[in-house]
Every structure is written in structure tokens, then in C-alpha cells.
């Protein structure tokens, strides 16, 4: 499962997006959140990656 955040961060000339992905632990079955700040073009690759 994954979700894409709607936050856009602008610093100077760069436009950045914060992506949040929900990952299920294979051992415990609990969900954790993985966050990353990246270029908007890389968000779909981050979400699709396991």
C-alpha cells in the first residue's frame, strides 16, 4: 500500500515534493511509514518500488 502526499516544498529555484509510503513489515505485519523528499518526477518510481 502506498499514498502520495500533497505537500510541495519550494526552496530557491528547486521544486521538491515529500512522498510518504506505507510499508508492511514481513515479520510482524505492522505498517510503517517511509518518507522522502525528492524531485516531483521521481515520486512514481519511489511509490512503485518495494
Automatic annotation (TrEMBL):
Matching InterPro entries: DUF4295
Pfam families the UniProt entry points to: DUF4295
Protein name, per record: DUF4295 domain-containing protein
Amino acid at each position: 500500500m502506498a499514498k502520495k502526499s500533497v505537500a510541495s516544498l519550494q526552496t530557491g529555484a528547486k521544486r521538491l515534493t515529500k512522498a510518504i509510503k506505507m510499508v508492511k513489515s514481513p515479520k510482524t505485519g505492522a505498517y510503517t511509514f517511509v518518507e522522502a523528499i525528492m524531485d516531483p518526477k521521481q515520486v512514481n518510481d519511489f511509490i512503485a518500488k518495494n
